[in-house]
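I have been asked to look over a protein record a colleague put together. Alongside the sequence sits a line of tokens, each denoting a local backbone shape. I have pasted the whole thing underneath without changing anything:
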Amino acid sequence: MTAKKASSGGTFRKFIVAMVIILIIALGFTGLNYYLKYFSPNVTDKQEYLYIHTGSDFNAVYKTIQEQGMVKDTASFYKAAENMNYVSRVKPGRYHLRNGMSNRKLINMLASGTQEPVTLNFHNLRLKEEFAGFVAKKIEPDSTAIIRLLDSTSFVQQYGFTTDNLYTMFLPNSYQLYWNTTPEKFFKRMYANYEKFWTPERKQKAAAINLTPIEVSVLASIVDAEALHDDEMPAVAGLYLNRLKKGMKLEADPTVIFAQNDFTIKRVLNRYLSINSPYNTYMHTGLPPGPIMMPSVNAVNSVLDYQKNDYIYMCAKADFSGYHAFATNMADHLVNAHKFQQALNDRNIKK
């Protein structure tokens, strides 16, 4: 009897030990599976950014991740996303992927919308279409959506602009914004920067020369197009302000080139001066209805802090240095103009 009891007890202990071992193995397997699903490195280095478009659902995100090889184990990512309820928390944006990120870190980043902003640097873009195309390369909205607002009279009136002069609102600078910024929010951000730029001091300087901030920027665009060197901008601005005060036409060659919409022109010929355009300052007195390019901040400040001079005329110097020969009377101007025309002829520049 005793031997049988001992044998039965030993068998039970072996059973218990076996069960414990099985439990330990099961827990270890579960723990390993949990680690692999949530904490092991899974993100690859095949793509630096994941772009999630506005309106995308989880299936679209998963398809992008799968097709572009953004994770090593797509099955574990899918399961982790389901368990972490990311399926119902998809947020659009531009997300920076780091090689070796775990599913947990990746999903937390996506679900919280912790995206990396884009840096937008723009300056001296000539046309609205160029600007819209440049911006569209940096943020989600396409150039058509941006142009639509640029050309919307009712929209731009909210900010006190017309479709002709709205371009003066965009001040060249470096901006950080989110990739999925809407066109409306983009414009709102640009306007906030415009308002910040036009301090009471700058507005006072504009009023002192009988110009509105918009008119200052329109004139600055001409100064910017005319002056190759920043240190000459105040003198050029002073000349144009002298013409405005006297009621003279500005007769600025860059406005004629803009009216012609031919920016390859190097020599403004007489036949160009008769083009019927509100931007042709040889034909119309005063400022054109809008800027002929995006004016730089230097050009705007040069108009506000213009050089007080008596210049009425200017002509590019014959040495092609990019500077101008200024004159206070027509006789001296004709001498300067003849020298430059001769230099163009010598170089066989006909247009």
User: Anything to note?
Assistant: Residues 200-346 form one domain. The two ends are 122 Å apart (CA to CA). The first strand starts at residue 49 and ends at 52. The chain has 14 helices and six strands.
